[in-house]
Each structure stands twice: as structure tokens, then as C-alpha cells.
Amino acid sequence: GDSVTQMEGPVTLSEEAFLTINCTYTATGYPSLFWYVQYPGEGLQLLLKATKADDKGSNKGFEATYRKETTSFHLEKGSVQVSDSAVYFCALPPMNSGYSTLTFGKGTMLLVSP
Amino acid sequence: DTAVSQTPKYLVTQMGNDKSIKCEQNLGHDTMYWYKQDSKKFLKIMFSYNNKELIINETVPNRFSPKSPDKAHLNLHINSLELGDSAVYFCASRGVQETQYFGPGTRLLVL
What we know:
Distance between the termini of chain B: 34 Å
Shape of chain B: globular
Mean pLDDT of chain A: 92
Order of helices and strands of chain B: EEEEEEEEEEE
Largest sheet of chain B: 7 strands, mixed
Number of helices of chain B: 0
Helix content of chain B: under 10%
Number of strands of chain A: 12
Helix content of chain A: under 10%
Largest sheet of chain A: 6 strands, mixed
Distance between the termini of chain A: 41 Å
Oligomer: heterodimer
Strand content of chain B: over 45%
Low-confidence stretches of chain B: none
Low-confidence stretches of chain A: none
Radius of gyration of chain B: 13 Å
Structural class of chain B: mainly beta
Shape of chain A: globular
Order of helices and strands of chain A: EEEEEEEEEEEE
Number of strands of chain B: 11
């Protein structure tokens, strides 16, 4: 079945450091791919998405490129801020839409210190 | 203009009690979900409703009973609460291109 694997956290960085959070997936076909972010005490919110191979999703300085050759969708940011401290989830939808839910990775916690 | 709202935000209760969590979305979506998030932040789908009909019912104890009075509301009732039910419960709805919109969560602590 479909699955998503994310790097384990926590990832601890200093402010202005470069961030990469790895995400690889297993799926039939070429689904859309998502990154969600969960700030402390809040619900998940969509950070960015890519709907087809080679697409780059971007938002709030974060980027992720849909790479079908490596079945990956790594999240990157050039210069993190303390306010980026959160849990990040990679996700993919079911291949046949239906009413199935997204498959989420286990989440990667990011801690950014001043 | 909150998109997905949940009440209450915090719920502290004793073992054996019965409690309900309410969820409402004003996005006009047909599909809604309940998720459970454990202390390690792992998200587990519990239920999915489409236009008031139960679609997904994962392996969840039958002490948990969802109810959808209309497509904008999906409530979760939990009977005979146990310590292991302590978690954060999220409601979500599904929009276009599979994007999901989450509520702020209900933090349940069973003592």
C-alpha cells in the first residue's frame, strides 16, 4: 500500500541555518504530494504541495520538488527562523480519490534556537 | 471566519466518564474526518464521513461513536473513557485536490 517515510526528529538548528527534511514515498502512479506544518498548540495546516512530477511547491520560504526518479519530496528552507519551530508532515493522497484520507508520515519536529 | 472549529479545546475528565467533542466546518466540504494524535505526534485516522454517511471506520474501539447531523458537523462521542484515550483529537474536512483543513484540536486528558 501507499506509504510515506520521513526522517526522524527532532531536527535542531540555529537561526539562519539551512533546513532539509527528507521525505520519500511509495505509491502506485504519481499522486500529488503535500507538506503540512503543525505549530505548537495548533492543528495542521497546508504548507505547500506539488501536483505532478518535477513540480516545485513553495510557501513562506519553504520549497519542495516532486522527484519521481527518487520518489522523494524533500522540504528545504535556506534560512530558518525561530518561528519555524514546528512539526512537519509529508503526506500523499490515495491514488483513487474515493473518500480515503491522506497517508501521513510520522512527522519531523524542527526546533530552531536564536 | 474560522474554517474548521472544534469544542472544547481542552477536556480533562475521569476514567469511566462519557464525553463528546464537536466539530463544525463552514467551507461547504462534503467529507470530514476524525484523527487521533498521540504524544509522539503520530496521526491516526479514526473515521471519515461523506455527506453524513460513514465511509472510513478504522480499527477503533466501539466506545468511540461519530455522528454527523449534517454535512457541516461531525461530532465524536466517547463512552467509558480510559487512560489510553488521552491524546489530541483533530477534526478535518477535505477540499479540492485532496487538501485537508484541520481544526485546532481537542486536548483530552483522562485521569
